[in-house]
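Narrative summary of target 7.
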Amino acid sequence: MPELGDLYQSLILEHSRSPRNYGAPPATSVPGAPLAGNGFRSADGNNPMCGDIVRVWVALAGDRLADVRFTGKGCAISQASASLMTTAVKGRTREEADRIFERFHDMVTGKPLDDEARAALGKLAAFGGVARFPMRVKCASLGWHAMRAALHGDAPRVSTE
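Modeled conformation, tokenized:
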């Protein structure tokens, strides 16, 4: 029987090789533009230490994330994390997406999570081991910071530095 760590590694490799919600939406908006004609906000993320880049688009329907998409290039951790992030927040409210962001960020930065918070992360728990590798925390969280910036219209670009 495979060990849990092996299953998590397989999940990360699967999402890295075949990312979900990958690709720009039709008639993409200018990064950071407040709801262009196609209804998407976007933000770019950059991790200059390892070269990871990501662009995340968020479309809102009322208070709900109707669609979340991304493009990018970089290591398996950054691309898999962005892929799993899109599946985790798509269809959620802003408040729910923020709560998932906080739990995920706490987990990858090594902050303790109670059993309920860890269980709520579902497949995102695959990134729990990232906290042991400080340089990888930036890889895992890059897409999340870009999603949050797009969602809240904070900035058209975010950086891990």
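Helices lie at 4-17, 76-89, 94-108, 115-121, 134-152.
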